[in-house]
Design goal:
Strand content: 25-35%
Number of domains: 2
Number of strands: 8
Distance between the termini: 153 Å
Radius of gyration: 41 Å
Length: 238
């Protein structure tokens, strides 16, 4: 009987196939999702324990911070005031300023600002300029005669909390120019124009007449309390 020879063949180990790009992306997304869930749970636990006063307080690392590097206030001058502010008036003006070039379209060169300005003008009497003989007192008859300078109006003081820019238009070339060169005096010109117009409006009002009446009433009340029965107040010509 013939003998059968047995042979054994060895085969290399079979390696698993490489994952496809889609499977790799899915695996990466699963890892990211798992990490995000764990991070959210940790943050929620921290805030929950903070609300229960288990953890000490901590600040938001991304909060806005403000650094004040201002210098100390410097006193430049002092002066004694001898004026009596008898009245003031609050005015509001709309300033519409436009700067452009002739024969050039506004969409190229144009600077227009619409500004609402609110300011106060004071009417005062300067007692520091009283001339000699302005005060005549008659103790026997208990009478006083006072000659005062005419009331004056101060320059308008803008109230920046009530003043604001309504609209601002700029041409294409103006925008390009502003990107390379800032004009710090641009808004200052608008403020100055508003001050000028409010001051002029105050001069045309009855603010100075109100100051005359209030000053006269104040002096009459003061001197009457001092025992004078006749008080005469006159104002000089402007």
């Amino acid at each position: 009987m013939a003998e059968v020879e047995e042979t054994t063949r060895e085969f290399p180990p079979v390696e698993p196939p490489d994952p496809t790009p889609v499977e790799r992306r899915r695996g990466g997304l699963r890892v990211l999702a798992f990490t995000g869930v764990v991070f959210a749970v940790l943050i929620g636990l921290c805030f929950g324990m903070r609300a229960l006063n288990v953890l000490p307080g901590f600040d938001n690392p991304f909060d806005d911070q403000e650094t004040d590097r201002s210098q100390p206030v410097l006193l430049q001058s002092m002066r004694d005031l001898s004026r009596y502010v008898a009245a003031d008036g609050t005015f509001q003006v709309i300033v519409d300023l436009q700067q452009n070039k002739e024969n050039i379209p506004d969409f190229l060169i144009n600077q227009r600002t619409l500004f609402v300005g609110s300011g106060t003008v004071e009417a005062y009497v300067d007692f520091g300029t009283l001339a000699d003989g302005a005060l005549v007192v008659d103790e026997k008859n208990k009478s006083v005669r006072i000659t005062l300078p005419p009331p004056q109006l101060s320059q308008a003081a803008l109230d920046m909390e009530r003043s604001y820019v309504v609209a601002e238009e700029r041409g294409l070339l103006n925008r390009i120019g502003d990107a390379f060169k800032a004009d710090p005096n641009k808004q200052q010109r608008v403020y100055q124009e508003a001050q000028k117009r409010i001051t002029e409006a105050a001069r045309g009002s009855e603010l100075d007449e109100r100051a005359r009446e209030n000053t006269q009433k104040m002096l009459e009340s003061l001197l009457t309390r001092l025992g004078y029965t006749s008080v005469t107040v006159t104002f000089g010509s402007p």
